[in-house]
Write a structure and sequence with these properties.
The longest helix is centred in the last third of the chain and has 34 residues. The chain is globular. By secondary structure, the protein is α+β, with helices and mostly antiparallel strands. Strand 16 and strand 17 form a beta hairpin. Strands 6, 7, 8, 14, 15, 16, 17, 24 and 25 form a 9-stranded mixed beta sheet that branches. Strands 11, 12, 18, 19, 20, 21, 22 and 23 form an 8-stranded mixed beta sheet that branches. Strands 1-5-4-3-2 form a 5-stranded antiparallel beta sheet, with helices on one face. The chain has 19 helices and 25 strands.
């Protein structure tokens, strides 16, 4: 038996595909015989005068469903080719692509004036509504999911005409400012705000939601968190108090059931990568306490509307979401920590704001049997199937406090106006296919809290290719989008670079060097991180293109297989964004040697233009490595 074809058909309606195959599709040659999961195409042996027999070269075409996606394979029974075999296969591919083309989900327009978000979304996303109804603040959180997706889609569809929320004015009525720093965004913004308040600056933190509640959980390693202790923001005792769980090992394994034998990979063990689960509520609570103790202020349930920047300061228009009362406040410097929803980031950079994104959904859950998952371990990266409706779905599972487990489902995604990426569609997948990933009865689980968001990335060419600042304005965290395009963790990037950002910002404030030219130098750019963006590009299915279903898993297994075969310090260094030029180059050469066609795959997925852009990144990385070797040699 020989496999001739493997296709991903981008629809969850496997029954409809089977019906079409059995009732409507007619091969150019041979007789069609229905089977329970597809058809058999039978060639007739015309050399015999007796009753026709079934030759060994019959084609078996069958379907199955996993990840809410339909897959098809064609096998030949014997060694001899089926008559006009190639033509029949090409006919099947062409006609099935025409009948079942890619369908990119659209966000339904909802009128919530006289119905709940549950009632409004139930016809479109029944599983999502059902399980959000089981969560303590499910209605509020589902509204937040819908709001975030709608805001993201509007920004992606109109990058050339973003909402204008920042304007520059020549004169100022007052040289007096209420605050030195005004942060918009109370997640990552709270961390930075607390540090700057402890340095003696007048700080205001503005947050759209109730402060301390967020729909993201954070994982980090002890070594990375040490920078917050070194800065004096936390003591060692306080750090221990916010650890929800520390696991003993983490695994990364990608599905390789359809990979070539040389592209299968062992499990990658990373015991010191993302192995500390932070209690985000306690963590943000401590940041808030330290901010207030140092004289700062927090205005939560308050939305940013716009800001006017003049030579002496920045004036913000805000609105209290509970009362509708407008507010106005003035500061020396505005800090944008609004993440992917930041209208400021879109205004500054237009279509270059974000090149890639990880639409991420998940939940904190209790009730999974210890026989299914041992909470002493984490699943850092895992796929249980191939490309699904134009996305390579990837799981994460981290143990939390008590019996809690935090699940994530995400995919690397190219930002495209026709296909921005959908949180609601991902949630429908999440609730449906969770039992495929980890055996469970989803109805018997305890659903504690949803986790979701758009985690952005930018394909950085150099230190100046993206604006993170304007006069008296600086972006940090996801709004700056300078985190690793591989790991996509704004929290980890901020923590790793917090010391550098704090020193530079402190110097700029003391010397009143708050122009765009000066502030754009305060960024978390790392040439060793920038060069990895081509790797993340290789994990995205370009909008409008069709790839072999196993393609991305083969690429992931190529690289992670090399990490699994390397000493532990190699994977630890790479995943924590500390890669050296020599280590990166060696891994790249080993990957090309292990899978020579890998370069062609990347070229097909990225295109010539992006390959040339990446060469610029690699040149900058090489130049930085040379400078460091010459002027900052290790003793």
């Amino acid at each position: 038996m020989k496999e001739l074809l493997y296709l991903e058909i981008p629809t969850p309606e496997t029954t409809a595909v089977c019906k079409w195959l059995q009732q409507k599709w007619n091969p150019t040659l041979g007789n069609k015989i229905m089977t329970p999961d597809g058809i058999r195409v039978q060639g007739i042996d015309e050399t015999s005068s007796s009753v026709p027999c079934i030759p060994e070269n019959d084609l078996s075409i069958f379907l199955w469903s996993v990840q809410r996606t339909t897959y098809l394979k064609v096998f030949r029974w014997g060694k001899s080719p089926f008559p006009s075999e190639k033509r029949v296969i090409e006919q099947l591919i062409q006609e099935i692509r025409t009948e079942f083309p890619p369908q990119y989900p659209q966000l339904p327009e909802l009128d919530l004036s006289n119905q709940s978000i549950f009632a409004a979304l139930a016809p479109y996303y029944p599983q999502t509504v059902h399980f959000f109804q089981k969560m303590p603040q499910g209605e509020t959180d589902l509204r937040r999911v819908y709001w975030w997706e709608k805001r993201w889609r509007e920004s992606v569809k109109n990058p050339q005409q973003p909402k204008q929320v920042i304007c520059s004015v020549q004169g100022s009525n007052s040289q007096v400012t209420d605050y030195d720093l005004i942060y918009i965004g109370g997640a990552l913004g709270a961390v930075h705000a607390a540090v700057m308040a402890q340095l003696g600056y007048r700080v205001l933190l503005v947050e759209r939601l109730a402060f301390g509640r967020m729909n993201r959980e954070w994982n980090i390693s002890r070594g990375e968190f040490q920078s917050l202790i070194d800065l004096g923001l936390f003591t060692q005792t306080e750090f221990e108090s916010i650890i929800a769980r520390e696991y003993v090992d983490g695994f990364s394994k990608f599905f390789d059931g359809n990979n070539s034998p040389h592209l299968k990979a062992d499990v990658l063990h990373t015991p010191t990568v993302l192995n500390i689960a932070i209690d985000s509520t306690k963590f943000l609570g401590l940041c808030g306490e330290k901010l207030l103790k140092a004289g700062g202020e927090i205005w939560d349930k308050t939305e940013f509307i716009k800001a006017e920047i003049d030579p002496n300061g920045v004036t913000l228009d805000l609105v209290n979401l509970d009362t509708g009362e407008p507010k106005q406040v003035r500061g020396r410097l505005l800090m944008d920590a609004m993440g992917t929803t930041s209208p400021i980031a879109w205004q500054l950079n237009g279509k270059q704001t974000f090149n890639s994104v990880c639409p991420t959904v998940g939940a904190i859950i209790e009730g999974l049997s210890s026989e299914v998952w041992d909470a002493k371990y984490g699943d850092v990266l895992n796929s249980h199937g191939d490309i699904s409706r134009g996305r390579q779905l990837i799981w994460e599972l981290f143990p939390g406090e008590g019996n809690e487990l935090t699940f994530y489902l995400f995919h690397y995604h190219e930002v495209h106006p026709d296909n921005p990426g959908s949180l609601l569609e991902m949630y429908e997948d999440f609730f449906t296919i969770l039992p495929e990933y980890r055996r469970c009865d989803v109805e018997n689980l305890v659903w504690k809290k949803p986790t979701f968001g758009y985690i952005p990335g930018h394909f950085t060419m150099g230190k100046r290719d993206r604006l993170v600042a304007f006069d008296r304005l600086l972006a940090i965290g996801d709004a700056a989008s300078l985190q690793s395009p591989l790991i996509f963790t704004g929290f980890g990037s901020l923590v790793r670079n917090l010391g550098k950002l704090t020193r530079l910002l402190d110097k700029a404030l003391k010397n009143d060097n708050l122009t765009a030219e000066n502030l754009n130098k305060i960024r978390a750019y790392q040439s060793n991180v920038a060069v990895t963006w081509l790797f993340s590009k290789g994990m995205m299915v370009p909008t409008g293109k069709v790839l072999p279903p196993q393609r991305i898993n083969e690429m992931l297994n190529t690289f992670f297989g090399l990490l699994a075969d390397s000493p532990p310090e190699v994977s630890d260094t790479f995943i924590k964004d500390k890669t050296t030029w020599l280590m990166f180059t060696r891994l790249a050469l080993k990957a090309a040697r292990k899978n020579p066609i890998l370069l062609l795959w990347i070229w097909e997925m990225a295109g010539s233009k992006d390959i040339l852009r990446w060469l610029r990144s690699y040149f900058n990385f090489s130049l930085d490595a040379l400078k460091n070797a010459l002027f900052f040699p290790k003793e």
